[in-house]
Design a protein that fits this description.
This protein is mainly beta and about 100 residues long. It contains one helix and seven strands, in the order E-E-H-E-E-E-E-E.
Length: about 100
């Protein structure tokens, strides 16, 4: 980005700046292998390793019915107090919605 986007004296010049602005807020993280995380972002680094708190993890598995060959989606949810997320498994990080964007 050539121009910085200004919002409440915070400049977004690089994609990682959006993550920085999400510290201490709830974020949505989509992981490889059908995992989804929602939690409060406590820390991150340049590799997108993250520490999340009060995490709700949803794991979605697809199974094929042997008789009908239908896809069956099964979701499992659990709550984790504190979680370290390794950045190489991250597909997407969605910050909270901000007014005006």
């Amino acid at each position: 980005m050539t121009e910085a986007i200004e919002n409440n004296n915070n400049a977004i010049e690089e994609p990682i700046d959006l993550i920085r602005m999400s510290l201490d807020e709830r974020v949505y993280v989509k992981m490889k292998n059908g995992r989804e995380l929602r939690g409060k972002l406590f820390a991150y680094d340049q590799h997108l390793n993250m520490v999340l708190g009060d995490v709700e993890e949803t794991i979605t598995n697809v199974e094929i019915d042997e008789d009908t060959y239908e896809e069956l989606f099964k979701s499992t949810k659990r709550t984790i107090q504190m979680l370290f997320v390794r950045g190489d498994g991250v597909i997407l990080v969605s910050p909270p919605t901000r007014p005006g964007y």
